């Protein structure tokens, strides 16, 4: 080994120290740059992750909306099918109603003339029947004719009234009733009490209870009765008006086949 001076050794040592120090500084700078790069990468990665998370959440939200839309579409489809069935049923009902209306029009064509015939028959029957409540019964027939000419009254209501009039006429044959009215004796007219037992007997009595008459439906005339019938007829009138309890009484009747 050659002999080197101390100055040379010191210089060499200083150069080596400087070289080592330079090397350390370069390494420190590289580490700092690396750390900055890593921090930048981490920051960018965090941003990217946030974007991914946001996209994922949006995707989940859109997926939920899609599923809700699909479910709503299924529900709406089912409801539309239900409504369509209802519409179809209503159409069938309208067709059925139209058929019924058409048939009603045909029924009217037969019922209306029938009602006029029934009213005519009722009027003739009253004219030939025992004349109890005659004024009221004639008024009922006149009202029926008026109703038949009223366009505001339905055919069904007209028919109901005609049938009701027939039922009332039928009832006269079974009731025991008294009423007050005018007695036409031809030469004079009196206000009297009338009492009838169905169509078996119709009698009248003056309001002072001093005269009484019996209707003879064959001769279509009133026949005056004897005094022996005054009290029984008075009692019958009071019983019919519920002024006396029901009891046996004597009323005149025409025997079957009597003229």
Question: What do these coordinates show?
Answer:
Among the domains are: 77-172; 175-253. It contains four helices and five strands; from the N terminus they run H-H-H-E-E-E-E-E-H. The protein has helices spanning 6-128, 134-148, 155-171, 230-240; strands at 176-184, 189-197, 201-206, 212-216, 221-224. It has a five-stranded antiparallel β-sheet, covered by helices on one side. The protein is rod-shaped, with a radius of gyration of 59 Å. The model has no long low-confidence stretch (mean pLDDT 82).
Entry summary:
Keywords: Signal. With 259 residues, the chain is an alpha+beta fold.
Q: What topology emerges from the helices and strands here?
A:
Blueprint: H1 6-128, H2 134-148, H3 155-171, E1 176-184, E2 189-197, E3 201-206, E4 212-216, E5 221-224, H4 230-240
Antiparallel strand pairs: 1-2, 2-3, 3-4, 4-5
Helix pairs in contact: 1-2, 1-3, 2-3
């Amino acid at each position: 080994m050659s002999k080197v001076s101390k100055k040379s050794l010191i210089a060499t040592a200083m150069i080596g120290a400087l070289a080592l120090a330079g090397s350390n500084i370069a390494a420190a700078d590289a580490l700092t740059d690396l750390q900055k790069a890593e921090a930048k990468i981490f920051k960018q990665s965090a941003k990217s992750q946030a974007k991914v998370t946001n996209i994922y959440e949006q995707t989940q939200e859109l997926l939920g909306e899609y599923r809700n839309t699909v479910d709503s579409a299924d529900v709406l489809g089912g409801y539309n099918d239900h409504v369509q069935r209802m519409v179809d049923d209503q159409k069938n009902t309208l067709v059925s109603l139209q058929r019924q209306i058409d048939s009603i029009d045909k029924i009217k064509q037969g019922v209306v003339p029938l009602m006029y015939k029934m009213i005519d028959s009722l009027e003739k029957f009253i004219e030939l029947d025992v004349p109890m409540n005659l004024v009221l019964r004639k008024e009922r027939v006149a009202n029926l004719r008026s109703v038949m000419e009223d366009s505001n009254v339905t055919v069904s209501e007209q028919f109901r009234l005609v049938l009701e009039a027939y039922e009332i006429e039928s009832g006269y044959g079974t009731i025991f009733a008294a009423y007050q009215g005018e007695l036409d004796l031809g030469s004079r007219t009196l206000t009297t009490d009338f009492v009838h037992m169905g169509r078996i007997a119709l009698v009248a009595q003056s309001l002072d209870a001093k005269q009484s008459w019996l209707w003879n439906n064959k001769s279509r005339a009133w026949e005056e009765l004897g005094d022996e019938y005054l009290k029984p007829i008075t009692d019958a009138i009071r019983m019919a008006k519920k002024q006396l309890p029901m009891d046996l009484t004597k009323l005149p009747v025409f025997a079957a086949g009597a003229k």
